[in-house]
Amino acid sequence: MNSSKWIWRVVSIVSVLATVLLLAGFVYAIKDIQNPKAAAEQSSPSATPQESTGAKSPEAKKDLKIAVIGDSLAKGTGDNSGMGFARRTVSELAKDSGRKATLLNNLGINGLTTTGLLPKLEEKGTQYVLGQADVILLSIGGNDLFQGADLATKGISGTSNPGTGTELDPKDLLKGLPKASTQLKAILERIRAINPEAWIVYVGLYNPFGDIEELKIPGNQAVASWNQSALQTINKYSSMSLVPTFDLFQHNLDKYLSSDHFHPNGDGYQQIAERIVQGIR
Amino acid sequence: MNMANNLDRKEQVVLSVEHVKKKIGRKWIIEDVTFDVREGEIFGFLGPNGAGKTTTIRMLVDLIKPSSGMIQVCGFDVNRQQEQALRYVGSIVENPEVYSYLTGWENLEHFARMQPGIDKRRIQEVVDIVRLDQRIHDKVRTYSLGMRQRLGIAQALLGRPKLLILDEPTNGLDPKGIKELRQFIRELADGGLAVFVSSHLLSEIQLLCDRVAIISRGRVLAVGQVEELVAANAKYVIWELEPAETGRRLLAGQGIDVIEQADAILDDAIIAGMGPDAIVTRMEEEDISAAVKHLVASGVAVQGVHQINPTLEQLFLKMTEGESID
Amino acid sequence: MINLLPLIKNETIKIIKKKRFYVILLILLVLVPIFTYAQMRSAERTREKFHGDWRLEVQQQITDNENSLGSDRVPDEWKKYRKIFVQQLQYYLDHDVNPNEPNGVTFTREFMANSITLFIPLLIMAIASDIVSGERTSGTIKMLLTRPVKRWKVLLSKLVTLFMFSSLIVVSAFIITYVVSGAVFGYKGFDMPVFTGFQITGSDVDLSAVHAVPQWKYLLMQGGLIWFVSLTIASLAFMVSVLVRSTAASIVVMMAALIAGTILTNMASAWSSAKYLFMVNLELTDYLSGTPAPIEGMNLSFSLAVLSVWAVAALIISFLVFTKRDILN
Lengths: 281, 326, 329
What we know:
The complex is a heterotrimer of chains A (281), B (326) and C (329).
Chain A: H1 3-34, H2 58-61, E1 64-70, H3 72-75, H4 84-97, E2 101-108, H5 114-120, H6 124-132, E3 135-139, H7 142-145, H8 150-154, H9 162-166, H10 170-175, H11 177-194, E4 199-203, H12 213-234, E5 240-243, H13 246-250, H14 253-256, H15 266-280
Parallel strand pairs in A: 1-2, 1-3, 3-4, 4-5
Helix pairs in contact in A: 4-15, 5-11, 11-12
Chain B: H1 2-8, E1 13-24, E2 27-38, E3 42-46, H2 53-60, E4 68-73, E5 76-77, H3 82-85, E6 89-92, H4 104-113, H5 120-129, H6 145-157, E7 163-167, H7 175-190, E8 194-199, H8 202-206, E9 211-216, E10 219-225, H9 226-232, E11 236-242, H10 244-253, E12 257-259, H11 268-273, E13 279-282, H12 288-297, E14 301-308, H13 312-319
Parallel strand pairs in B: 3-8, 3-9, 6-7, 7-8
Antiparallel strand pairs in B: 1-2, 1-4, 4-5, 9-10, 11-13, 11-14, 12-13
Helix pairs in contact in B: 5-6
Chain C: H1 4-17, H2 20-50, H3 54-69, H4 76-94, H5 104-115, H6 119-131, H7 133-138, H8 141-145, H9 151-185, E1 193-196, E2 199-201, E3 204-206, E4 211-214, H10 215-243, H11 247-267, H12 285-289, H13 300-324
Antiparallel strand pairs in C: 1-4, 2-3
């Protein structure tokens, strides 16, 4: 019959303690938010050393770890299945050689240019991912070359049509070339420095406007000279290769381009992936 | 013998209600209510449903504030000094609504905590008074209506009040329960408690109350001792005459008040005992023999003359004659 | 004159005996395992995808968010959020701290941050909405108010009891979440550093004031903010409970207000005076984690002020109405 007494004792004591605790937390929170620097003494936390991931353990070494970085092509824009050449490469590798390949990360970002990629390489997260990889797939430069095509990359499919391309001034195609080439060189070298062991595969450019009269010739020229200058850098390193795509698409634009007439479609990506796999072997 | 006691303490007014009015919305629910309740008396508050009884009772215990007028308990204004005034009041307003998820004992403990000076012994005392000790540690959920009623009274008595307010206490009780309750209330009053009882069943209260107030449509129609009120009322006489029509005409011709719709005024029990041709009149006792003579002289056979004992119900029905209750 | 303590004791006993508090604990005990399980599944899946390497996961999160920044179909407001989010994730990566390290404490932190707008208020309302209207529904209010106790004292005792139980609910939610999720994710993580102090100006994050606090301290601060929100909700529900006779109706009124709040939070940025509504100001923990406020011009002191004004107004109304009102039934 003393249950009332106990209820009261327990509830009152516990609730008062709870209130005091929460009130303290509240005061502390206000102080911390309003005056954040007051507590900033430990602003650089000692990096938590305990967990340095099992990724580099010998057991995992058997797997081929693939990292993808670059522009919308790297991301796989235009592929309705969402796989892009990144995942297609992984599954091709598995099918082909039975080697278990895993995709670490796909760091492709729509509309990325060489200018945008360079600072990314300085980010810790990016470096970490690239450092883990056995194979690094890189696709960059298309946006530097076909700047007008930025539009096409935004509306992933449907909104754009070949018309956007026609607004390109053919002469502009070549204008940005020298600077972009230098930056590509810097990018490749930086990636090499981040991970000296990984196999780096650069996906060459193709000319998506090969079927447009006034863009066909200048486009081809620009793409060819870009790929050429990329090769110059790539040839300097042993474990680096360029996967050509120019010839793949040259006469198959209808077959391999997606509806935005800029990015490859699933079949296009599949072709690229197959070539990448051949290059890795 | 109670009467004598009451007269001795006549000056001890426990509850005084003066010109209380209450307006709810645009309607005057209580138009003018004035009465006193004294120590040791049982005061009946009578009226039909909707007359304003419950509203008045709620004002007595500060659930409703009067629009004007003053209510005092033992000299304290209920609305301004409720802490002092309500200390002397124990009440059940409408049904005895207690916490059904607590036991009877826990309920009493709950109410005891709200008033200083009530210890465990007092709780046990009131439990014994209402004879609930068998089931007091059961959850109220399992109680019968009668037991809840008793628990309600127990909580009302907890604070040793000077005034006990019971609103329709006989509701839901069987005849035996009503009888017990009456006896119980009488015992309390003999102990010096002033008991204020409201009811719409006038006959059952008549047996219980020392004094009554009759309320209808928000007004007090009469206040006084039951005997005085009833005695002051005109008497009814039932005639059984042959031939009835001639008799009725003759009585009316004598200036006697013949009542056409007797069932609106008389107790049901009396109406049930009347013949189909009975004539009801309102007249003084001393006029009866003259009327009989006149009837006999005119050749009407007088088969029966009954004088009806006056009751509160008849008084009430007469006072509210012609009013419909909404 | 009777003091408040016995009255508070009464109210406490009634809440416990009415099993209101047990119901709340029961809700927590049923729901938290469900959320924990869901979280466990999604954690398993991401672990599979990223081979248990949180850096890869965070980096992918960054990339995904950056990608959506380019899309025209993402509203500008969301872009702002994501931009800020990316910068914060970057900060975690740079400092080698896993923001979503799977352990009981982290789960508790995230769960509580998500509970502040709806779940915790709901639990508070389970008690608050009933505390006055319950007495009216059952008619016991008549018994309560015919005691020789002033009405404001009766009401104050109920309010104090409600606040006591609000504290209990917040602490119980923390404890139950920790205990249940810890069984799955492990009970460690109190010392893990969590960053706070992100200062948001426009769509940029000022990192100069960012500092790490151990997670237990973060939980404490979070608890304090949730507690403040709970008291505000309790006060508002208390007012509704005084004004509305039925418990069900009073719960519905409060629920409607809260849900309107969550909807508004998602789309109110265009209507800037919505920031004076209490419902949009409930996410106090966002100021701690550095999530941008839904409407320009909101900050911690603003939100605290708005909530306080609402709570105080609600209490004033409650007391005025309760002490003046006629109890007609």
